[in-house]
């Protein structure tokens, strides 16, 4: 009997520890990232924003990747810049840790669950509740969701969005091959879900474990029938959902 295979389409660094825990469920695990970090053609906007850090009331970071880039850039700057940092707000502990330096205060959402990065909207609500002023620097990817800046702007807070990284989508051939190799495919991006839906006919689609509401919504719009949803980006929760799927498929 063939060992069930779980294909992880997450980009490098997504949900640390997940790939290491899944073999304990009796599955083979394959990493097939369908979003990869690409070269940003122009980083001047980010560098100029960081030179003006003292002008911002706060910096909001919603992904470990953006945190690593911003933290590395700041660590290369002068010691006077590093001493005069505004408050940093991070979506969760892993994002705060990825900054890689000790700002005066890295603040988390007020109802943060330990070990979980739970959402940009929750972060924005916490910033509004704390009375954060204008303006807020929001370093982000080229393609990003707008919950945080939209929420802050509705509360009267100016937000300066600065692109600091680009994610490049894989080809349809790569997406089709990833689906063919697994009984269960794990996704954490609506862009990847749309790519998979375009690449694989409905009759050939494996079980899809969609992490996050945007991924789930994209899968439902695409008519992906074999769908399991994990609302929060937690490796433990994804593992449990896959365990339940394997029981149902046995």
Task: Offer a few descriptive terms.
250 residues, alpha/beta, six-stranded mixed beta sheet, 11 strands, 39% helix, elongated
Structural classification = alpha/beta
- Contiguous helical run count: 11
Main sheet specs: 6 strands, mixed
* Low-pLDDT regions: 113-117
Distance between the termini: 11 Å
Number of strands: 11
Please state the average pLDDT score.
88
Cα radius of gyration in angstroms: 19 Å
Q: How helix-rich are the residues, as a percent range? A: 25-40%
How are the strands of the largest sheet arranged?
3-8-7-4-5-6
**Shape category:** elongated
What fraction of residues sit in β-strands? 15-25%
Q: Helices and strands, in N-to-C order?
A: EHEEHEHHEHEHEHEHEHEHEH
Description of the structure:
There is one protein chain. With 250 residues, this protein is of the alpha/beta class. The chain is 39% helix and 20% strand. The protein has helices at residues 18-21, 44-51, 64-75, 79-83, 93-98, 120-129, 147-154, 172-181, 190-199, 213-221, 235-249, and strands at 5-8, 28-31, 35-38, 58-61, 88-90, 106-107, 136-141, 159-169, 184-187, 207-211, 227-230. A six-stranded mixed beta sheet has the order 3-8-7-4-5-6. Strands 2-1-9-10-11 form a five-stranded parallel beta sheet, sandwiched between helices. α10 links the parallel β10 (207-211) and β11. α6 packs parallel to α7 (147-154) and α8 packs across α9. The longest helix is centred in the C-terminal third of the chain and has 15 residues, at 235-249. The protein is elongated. The protein starts with a strand and ends with a helix. The model is unreliable at 113-117 (pLDDT under 50).
